[in-house]
Amino acid sequence: MTSHVRHVTIDCADPYTLGTFWAEVLGGAVSDEDHPGDPEAMVEHAGTPLLFIEVGDARTVKNRLHLDLQPQDRTRDEEVDRLLALGASVVADHRTAEGLGWVTMADVEGNEFCVERGKQERGKQERGE
User: Fold this and answer.
1) Inter-residue long-range contacts of 97-100, CB under 8 Å, 24+ positions, other chains counted
2) Closest listed residue to residue 48, CA positions, set 74, 72, 22
């Protein structure tokens, strides 16, 4: 027998606030069982659920694990703009003049994640367009 990833757990200061941010990012929802002030919040979406757990320690170093996002119905640059409007920030911009690369961003608590080229952008490159 093998195992499967039940959910990805992320330590944070405010599970409900961070969960709400990620629910918007992923087009999902915070579980109906979770409320502001709860010590945890589950975000359910089309992929593996994310579980945010309240911890007392402040984040002090770079993430050892991060999420890579690939937009499904927009370009990478459109997704970066959307995420900025949700409260994310740009940490490092690795986009190239040829349209390749990614953008490293941080969520509302400073957890880093990357935004890669969108699904359609990747398809165009593979077809040589």
Assistant:
1) 99/125, 100/125
2) 22
> Residue 87, Cα to own-chain centre: how many angstroms?
12
Confidence (pLDDT) at 125: 60
Provide the 10 A C-beta neighbour count for residue 80: 21
What is the average per-residue pLDDT within 92-109? 95
Closest CA to 122 of 75, 62, 58: 75
Q: How far apart are CA 111 and CA 59, in angstroms?
A: 8
Euclidean distance between CA atoms 80 and 102, whole angstroms: 10
Mean pLDDT of 76-101: 96
Q: Which residues pair with 67 in a beta bridge?
A: 113
Strand partners, 64: none
**Residue 128: pLDDT over 90:** no
Q: Which residue has the tokens 């400073």?
A: 110
- Whether 126 shows a pLDDT value over 60: the answer reads no
Tokens of 72: 């499904």
- Tokens read off for 63: 């993430």
Contacts of 33 (CB under 8 A, 6+ apart): 42
